[in-house]
Amino acid sequence: MTRKVFTNTRERWRQHNVNTAFAELRKLIPTHPPEKKLSKNEILRLAMRYINFLVQLLESQSGHQFTLCMFKYLSSTPALPLPSHSSRPLPPPPPNLSRSGAEQRL
Length: 106
Known about the structure:
Number of domains: 1
Strand content: under 5%
Number of strands: 0
Protein name: Stem cell protein
Largest sheet: none
InterPro entries: bHLH_dom, HLH_DNA-bd_sf, TAL-like
Mean pLDDT: 76
Number of helices: 4
GO molecular function, one term: DNA-binding transcription factor activity, RNA polymerase II-specific
Pfam family, one: HLH
Structural class: mainly alpha
Keywords: DNA-binding, Transcription, Transcription regulation
Low-confidence stretches: 82-88, 102-106
Distance between the termini: 43 Å
Radius of gyration: 17 Å
Shape: elongated
């Protein structure tokens, strides 16, 4: 019985950590309305779209050298923890970054 209790406790702790990470990621994704509840799947899909938008924005401002630098950095560093939500303003959201836009791609 003790092993089962330990396993259940460990799984609750793991699930809590996953949910906390999704909550932090959700804070970083601009949507309208901002408080709209999103599923984990929608959070991941919108995060990918937002990252692609930011990459395109940076490439348009600084050229294609950014993509090469980013690829080298990401391929040479281990996974990093999500940063805490800061008070810095986010760049403007790309067009159609909404829940309905994510559902169209499903």
